[in-house]
Amino acid sequence: MTPPLLPALHHVALICSDYARSKAFYSQVLGLRVVREVYREARDSWKLDLEVSPGVQLELFSFPDPPPRATRPEARGLRHLAFAVPVLDAVVAELHRRGVPTEPVRVDEHTGRRFTFFADPDGLPLELYEMGEEPTTR
User: pTM score > 0.90 for this model?
Assistant: First the structure.
């Protein structure tokens, strides 16, 4: 069997409207580790690299006056980001404790796994997808 041409995801890039607010959300509220932060003077732009898991990063960019997302979530392009979590209820409870509302928990009809959505400061849909033990019902 031929190995995949693209064996791993390295990063996902996001453009935010309020850099300080988004930096605080992703690094303090969600707890992603800051890898590096660079101000790019020629572009009047910040670039923040955050570690999601070993080898996977979220790149957060700021630009002057970025246009808003056309619609949520069915616009062409990135639909949402999904984060794998071992126990969904624990993460949802912690987000609520930190003031982040979530949608009701649903079940993926194809995998039997539970998931929910919440939003970042710009309204980008973020998903929590439970990856604990194998579900018992399908």
Answer: no
Burial of 116 (0-12, 13-18, 19+ CB in 10 A): buried
Cα–Cα distance, 91 to 128 (Å, whole number): 8
Q: How far apart are CA 49 and CA 115, in angstroms?
A: 26
Per-residue pLDDT band for 138 (boundaries 50, 70, 90) equals very low
**pLDDT digit string, tens, across residues 23-63:** 999 999 999 999 999 999 999 999 999 999 999 999 999 98
30 vs 53: CA distance, rounded Å: 13
Name the 3-class secondary structure at 58. strand
Q: Check whether the bond before 73 is cis (ω within 30° of 0).
A: yes
Cβ–Cβ under 8 Å, residues 58 and 52: yes
Token digits for 84?
């794998």
Tokens 């605080």 appear where?
Answer: 24
Would you state the structure tokens that stand for residue 7, as one six-digit string? 């064996």
